[in-house]
Amino acid sequence: GESVGLHLPTLSVQEGDNSIINCAYSNSASDYFIWYKQESGKGPQFIIDIRSNMDKRQGQRVTVLLNKTVKHLSLQIAATQPGDSAVYFCAENNESNYQLIWGAGTKLIIKP
Amino acid sequence: GAVVSQHPSWVICKSGTSVKIECRSLDFQATTMFWYRQFPKQSLMLMATSNEGSKATYEQGVEKDKFLINHASLTLSTLTVTSAHPEDSSFYICSAPPAGPYEQYFGPGTRLTVT
Predict the structure, then answer these.
(1) Counting Cβ atoms within 10 Å, is residue B21 exposed (0-12), middle (13-18) or buried (19+)?
(2) What pLDDT, in 10s, does the model give residues A29-73?
């Protein structure tokens, strides 16, 4: 598995606004993509996933968009709340490989 | 949903001692578990894949004699950091997939501080 050890980019959003977090994935053979939320001092928490045969998937207040042409993944959070403050990671893998490939992560800060 | 636990949640040890971290799948069996370490403001770095009943597979650059992994049962994997040094201080996280390669669930992490 691979992971990227970079300093985290930060996204600041006003409470109540929508947040859009972007991720560029690396492996064109990946067919499964996941967004995780990690709060300080805790393990990653599953938010939403999407298979490569889909372009969009919606959950509660969250939407994931997949653009396979440019290998881009995004997470949209509607009506951002203080509890959404965390680091968000995208991850990818495929059916033949249990190992996740991790993105660098984005720190989401909610402004009151 | 599937639950993965880790113990301890944090540990402080002296340089030169060994520390064991446990990862348990509470409501499912896991033939495979993963161990990660995470430094501040960085992404997760896969250390090794723990396989029940066989040897762990280590990622390049990870010393197998220093980070001992034992996957003794379908619900328990342990990571032992031997002869710990301050540079081993990190956040260690395990994960397990309940079924197939998708939907990995993560433990809450263990904060190791070596003094």
Answers:
(1) buried
(2) 899 999 999 999 999 999 999 999 999 999 999 999 999 999 999
Cβ–Cβ below 8 Å for B93 and A45? no
Chain B residues near residue A105 by CB distance under 8 angstroms: 42-43
- Please answer whether residues B21 and B91 qualify as being in contact, where contact means their C-beta atoms are separated by less than 8 angstroms: no
Rounded Cα distance between A81 and A109, Å, is 10
Tell me the pairing of strands B19-25 and B76-81.
Answer: antiparallel
Contact between A43 and B34 using a beta-carbon 8 Å cutoff: no
CB contact under 8 A, A44 and B44: yes
Walking along chain B (115 residues) 10 residues at a time, the average pLDDT comes out as 92 97 94 94 92 92 96 94 97 89 87 97
Nearest to A97 among B43, B101, B107 (CB): B101
- The whole-number pLDDT of residue A4 equals 41
